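[job 0412] stage=fold_complex status=start
inputs:
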Amino acid sequence: MNLDFTAEDDLFREEARDWLQDNVPRTPQPPDGWPQREWELAWQAKQYEGGWAGVSWPKEYGGKGLSLTHQLIWFEEYARAGAPNAQLLFVGCNHAAPTLVAKGTEEQKSFHLPKILKGEVLWCQGFSEPNNGSDLGGLRCRAVIDGDHLVVNGSKIWTSSAHLADWQELLVRTDPDVPKHKGITWTICDMKTPGIELRPINIMTAPGHHHFNQVFYTDVRIPLTNVVGEVNDGWNVAMSTLGFERGTASMSEQIRFGVVLEKLIKLAEERLGPGVLEHDEIGARLAQLRAEWAATRAMTYMVVSKSFKGAPGSESSLLRAFVSQLKQRSRRIAVDILGSDSLELPEHDPWIRPYLRTYSETIAAGTSEIQRNIIGERVLGLPR
Amino acid sequence: MNLLPTDEQVQLVDAAKSFLEGEAPMERLRPQYGQVGNHDGKLWPQLGELGFLGIGVAEEHGGLGLGAAEETLVFREYGRHLVSPGILGLVLAGRLAAGDAALTEKILAGKAKVGLSIRRQGGGWHLLEAKDADYVVSYSEEGSELRAVSDYVEVTDIMCMDSHLLLQRAKLSAAKPLRAVKGPELYHVAIQLLSAYAVGVAEGALRMGVEYAKIREQFGKVIGSFQAIKHKCADMAIWAEVASCQVAFSSVVVADKRADAGFQVRASNLVAIDAALKNGATNIQVHGAIGFTAETEAHVYLKRAHVLDTLSGSLREQRTGMLRDPVPA
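[job 0412] stage=fold_complex status=done
writing structure:
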């Protein structure tokens, strides 16, 4: 056991710090819509030009081909520099790209990965359906093979940023006559294909906040060359993506959140006086949260340590299940610090929208209940 | 950077595991209810012979010359087996005795018993596992001391909530300590090892609850198949994992004597005591009525978690301290 970084690691850290200091965007990140898309793509492009995009991605597809330790260092410096959390690019960078790296063909990799890295495209995810959320494996959006195309008919829902996206990672039912997990295909869908229609769905963080969509597919033709992995093997392909999300993909956000907690401690001192940290229930909660964010960092280090021995396993569910609830508890405390000011919802508020946003944490990408089933069954060996 | 134990560290843990499985089976904690007292003193000479009492003591003083990382791994095993916290007294005494060759030899060989003292609210002291001990250790951020047990006067026995432990009230005479060090270094070691022990308690309670959930049947099914129970087990697994990762992290920080040792150790203590208390309670609930009896050791995990909390200066005190230090870079 050691926490020593090599001289080469330290040099990498120094370079990262210097570059970030000079290049982190100074203009505020727009909260939604096309302006946010353009802003995030521009920042991604800048990172690519600086040579910092895809630190642990393979070199042949534009990455730096470095270890997960380097990725960790980059994320730590990224958080320290106060660099923005890429929200819209998350699916492309953290789902689609790792899935393509693991399961894609050469053509798919060399076409898509550089575009994602260079900040040229935005991806969305077409997994959940109106009747298949937690029971993802029962999805029904139908695709039949017609010549060298899949023809898709059906619907997806809770599709974040579908209205801003160029590409979609799409799960479809290609064989309805076999056990449910065996008839699913993972495919890349061009969002400009004829037959795709969107219905915007507002989310709870503010009135008129268009974030989700229901996506309708009517005879949407997708070339078979867009299938990732084999036809009917999409469940396994999808699991490799979700596994990644539950493990290392959330690393940057976890590191970044420690900074949020420090701001909350400062907010409590400013608004309630320094005594609040010693003799108040708020202080006790902040102290516990500070310890838990320190522990989250240690958990992230453990995930990296385990990655030296192999890919992250079901244990990463432990980290994700913990962090999603930790975020809720952390953001909640802002409301208690602010008192009646917490009822105000100004356009650029740093506390209330992010607080409301945390209610998605225990639902998206597998609810806390599904996470606990996975932990119970795959980590602890309890029966289904 | 690598938080996984090295091959040598794994060997040390395996040695501790196999010793404790043979010599400290959990069944020893299932006598009839009442003030039971500590049976584990008979383990000390054996642990001494195996070198476990001097893991963190320098080789020139007769120890193994390792550090807090190795001690942490072993204390986790003590926690899983609910070994008497007198083991902490011995390990701290070994460090305090360095420089006094005869005393060091006696302690590292496990030929002495060492209790722990905790300051009581409103004055005086609580002594734990000191009734048949030769020495008593106290630790705080200001400094740590090793004393002859006779330095404590007006000693009265008190029934301990954790009935496997011996508790007393006492006052401290004006006698000088046998050994004393100033500063927080040994305090950090103490809190680190208490936290490691707490991780073991959290893991032991988790394992016990999960094993029971796999065999106990109700409504024609094992109860672990019900989400109400499965999710409780998952929560125990999460809390134990959170604590074990942070305790591993801080063990290296303490071993390296980094400036952020205080911060990291306190963080470990807050998450590890929290995990031990939660898992101790949840394990009882998973067991149902049998968990409320003295016929299983479920209750001992919970009670030991409370003892660890007290020995750490309580969650309340640690939380106040947690906000005092700046977050390390």
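[job 0412] summary: The first strand of chain B starts at residue 114 and ends at 119.
[job 0412] exit 0
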